[in-house]
Write a structure and sequence with these properties.
Layout lengths: L3 H18 L12 H4 L5 E6 L15 E4 L5 H4 L9 H12 L3 E9 L18 H18 L6 E6 L2 E3 L6 E3 L3 H6 L3 H12 L4 E6 L5 H16 L6 E4 L2 E3 L5 H12 L4 E10 L16 H20 L4 E6 L32 H7 L5 H9 L2 H4 L3 E2 L6 E3 L3 H4 L11 E3 L5 E19 L20 E7 L6 E6 L6 E20 L9 E3 L1 E8 H4 L1
Parallel strand pairs: 1-2, 1-11, 2-3, 3-4, 4-7, 7-8, 8-10, 9-10, 10-11
Antiparallel strand pairs: 5-6, 12-20, 13-15, 14-19, 15-18, 15-20, 16-17, 16-18
Length: about 525
C-alpha cells in the first residue's frame, strides 16, 4: 500500500528537484551572497515558511534562520499533552546541515496560543499556579528538546501595548498577564534559562522605534536585568514602510536598547510599499519600476545604518524570502499583494536586493557591476553632486541640496515658485532624477501626517544656455519622502528643479529639499 508518509517524501523530493532546476540567483549564478557580504558585520537571516525548501537556492544567502510559524505554540503544542515536532525537527536539521544558526520563535505570546492553555475542563480560567505549570512544562519541553542546537529564543513576544484609555505604553492586557500577573515575563525567561543555560534569550516586539513604546521596552528589559534575569538581546521587528520610521527613530532605538549592554536584533525585516493608512490595492498588476527603485533606496538607507551599528547588531532577519509568500500579502488588507522583500515571486532579485548588496552606491550601479549591463552602468553618476548652484534665494542654503548628505537641506519659506538650477561642466545625457524631501531627512520624525510636509508639486527642466528652460518631467500631488523618476534620455548643459507647491498643507509654503540628484553620462565621452 502506498502510504501517506511515502507520498510526503516523494512530494518533497520532487519539489527539491524542481527548485534546483529553477536555480534563479543562488551560488550557481555567481550572484553575491548576502551572508558573505556582511560576514564581518552581523548574521543575515530569513523566516522559514513551512515549505521553506522551496525557496532554494535563494537560501544560500543566509546563515541564520527563524521559524515563521512552525515553532509557535499552536503549531508545536496544539493540544494538551500533544506535541508536533516534525516540522521544527526538519528545519533544525536543515539549518545544521547548511551552517545556519537557529532562533526559536516564540515561547510566550498572546497570539497563536491555543485557548486550552488558559482554561480548565469546564472552560473556566485556570489558576495562576496551573498556568505557570503549563508555561514551564511547555518551555522546558520545547527548549529542552533543542538544547545546544538553537542559538537563541524569542522568549516573550509583543508584551507591550498602548493602553487605549490612557495612551500609555504598558504591559499588554493578555491572558498571561490577567491570570499570572505582571511577573509572567520573569517566569518565562527563568524557565527558558533553566531548560538551556547556554542558549541566548531575547525579548521581541514590533513598533520598537516608536518613542513611547521604545521607552517601555527599555524599562521592561532593564527591570529584568536589574533582577538578575538573563536577557541577551532585544528584537526590533522591522515591519517598516518606504517612508517610515525615520532613520533618526531607528538610530535612537538602537542606541537606547544597546545601552543596556544587550545585543540588538533586527528580527522581522520587510519594507511595505504601502503606508499603514493606505488601504488601496494600487499595485494589483505588479510593482511599478519607480516604486521598486524607491523601496531599494529605503533598504539602502537602513542597511547603511545597520552597518554603522554593526558592533551592537547581532543579526538582521528578513521576514520571508520571496514577495509572493510574504505575510504582508494579506495584512492589513485581505487579498492585497504587497512587495516587501528582496526577491520577486519568481525568485529574481529586485532593486532592493542590489541596494542591500552595497548600500553606499545606487542599486542600479551595483546591479550593472555584477551583471555586466553596460548600458545601465553608464547612467550611474550623479552629475549635479557638489556643483555650484543658483536659486530663487539664498544660494548658500540651496547648495545643501546637492551635497550628498541627508543631514542637510535646502529650505525656503517665502512665496513659491522656488527653483534651484545647476550648471553642468559639459553636455550630459540624462536618464533619471531623484528628489529627497523632508521625510528623507536623517532627523525626520516620521509621525502621523508627516508625509504632508513632503514636496507636493515640482518639475524637472533642462536648458542649453541657462536662460531658456524646457519642462522635462513633472510630479503632482506627491506625498512620498523620496521621488525617483526615469525619463526618456535627454541632453542638457543645465538642469533645474522648480517647486510650485511646497507641501500638501494649505497656505504652508515651507520647502525642505534634502537632496536633488540627476543621473547621466557625459555626452562627448559616450560618443
Amino acid at each position: 500500500m502506498f502510504s501517506h508518509k511515502r507520498l510526503l517524501v516523494l512530494t518533497i523530493v520532487v519539489a527539491l528537484g524542481m527548485s534546483m532546476l529553477n536555480t534563479h540567483y543562488g551560488k550557481a549564478e555567481g550572484i553575491p551572497m548576502l551572508k558573505e557580504i556582511y560576514e564581518e558585520d552581523f548574521r543575515i537571516g530569513f523566516a522559514a515558511r513551512s515549505s521553506f525548501w522551496l525557496d532554494e537556492p535563494l537560501l544560500d544567502h543566509f546563515n541564520a534562520v527563524t521559524a515563521e510559524n512552525i515553532m509557535k505554540w499552536d503549531s508545536i503544542h496544539p493540544r494538551e499533552g500533544v506535541y508536533n515536532f516534525s516540522s521544527s525537527d526538519a528545519l533544525i536539521d536543515y539549518a545544521e546541515k547548511h551552517g545556519m544558526s537557529v532562533t526559536g520563535h516564540t515561547l510566550v505570546w498572546h497570539n497563536q496560543t491555543p485557548n486550552w492553555v488558559f482554561v480548565d475542563e469546564s472552560g473556566q480560567d485556570v489558576s495562576r499556579e496551573e498556568l505557570l505549570a503549563r508555561m514551564e512544562e511547555h518551555i522546558k519541553t520545547v527548549v529542552g528538546r533543542y538544547k545546544g542546537r538553537v542559538k537563541g529564543w524569542d522568549v516573550v513576544n509583543e508584551a507591550i501595548d498602548q493602553n487605549p484609555e490612557t495612551g500609555r505604553w504598558e504591559l499588554r492586557d493578555s491572558k498571561w498577564r490577567e491570570i499570572i500577573g505582571d511577573d509572567f515575563i520573569e517566569y518565562a525567561f527563568r524557565f527558558a534559562h533553566e531548560a538551556d543555560p547556554d542558549a541566548e534569550l531575547y525579548y521581541n516586539d514590533y513598533s520598537a522605534t516608536d518613542p513611547g513604546k521604545r521607552d517601555a521596552i527599555y524599562a521592561l528589559v532593564k527591570g529584568l536585568l536589574d533582577k538578575g534575569i538573563r536577557v541577551d538581546g532585544i528584537g526590533m521587528q522591522g515591519h517598516w514602510e518606504i517612508n517610515a520610521p525615520s532613520e533618526y527613530l531607528i538610530r535612537e532605538a538602537i542606541e537606547k536598547y544597546s545601552s543596556l549592554g544587550v545585543k540588538v536584533h533586527i528580527t522581522e525585516l520587510d519594507i511595505s510599499v504601502f503606508s499603514w493608512n493606505d488601504r488601496s490595492n494600487r499595485y494589483a498588476d505588479g510593482l511599478p519600476d519607480d516604486v521598486a527603485a524607491r523601496q531599494g533606496e529605503r533598504y539602502a538607507s537602513v542597511f547603511r545604518l545597520f552597518k554603522e551599528y554593526a558592533s551592537v547588531i547581532d543579526r538582521v532577519t528578513f521576514w520571508g524570502v520571496k514577495d509572493n509568500y510574504s505575510w504582508k500579502n494579506n495584512f492589513p488588507v485581505q487579498g492585497r499583494r504587497d512587495y516587501p522583500l528582496l526577491f520577486d515571486k519568481d525568485g529574481k532579485p529586485k532593486p532592493s536586493f542590489w541596494a542591500v548588496v552595497d548600500p553606499t552606491r545606487p542599486w542600479y550601479e551595483v546591479k550593472a557591476e555584477y551583471e555586466g549591463t553596460a548600458d545601465n552602468e553608464e547612467f550611474t553618476r550623479n552629475v549635479v553632486l557638489n556643483r555650484s548652484v543658483t536659486s530663487s534665494s539664498d544660494v548658500h542654503r540651496a547648495g545643501k541640496a546637492v551635497d550628498g548628505s541627508d543631514q542637510t537641506s535646502w529650505s525656503e519659506s517665502t512665496e513659491p515658485p522656488y527653483w534651484l538650477a545647476v550648471e553642468l561642466d559639459d553636455e550630459y545625457l540624462i536618464k533619471r532624477w531623484v528628489v529627497k524631501h523632508a521625510g528623507a531627512s536623517a532627523f525626520a520624525s516620521g509621525g502621523p501626517g508627516s508625509e504632508l510636509f513632503n514636496t507636493a508639486d515640482f518639475k524637472l527642466q533642462k536648458s542649453d544656455d541657462g536662460e531658456v528652460w524646457i519642462d522635462v518631467d513633472e510630479v503632482v500631488g506627491n506625498t512620498d519622502s523620496i521621488t525617483s523618476r526615469e525619463v526618456e534620455p535627454f541632453n542638457a548643459k543645465h538642469v533645474r528643479l522648480v517647486v510650485t507647491r511646497p507641501t500638501s498643507i494649505s497656505d504652508n509654503n515651507r520647502l525642505s529639499i534634502v537632496e536633488f540628484e540627476v543621473y547621466g553620462v557625459d555626452s562627448q565621452k559616450r560618443r
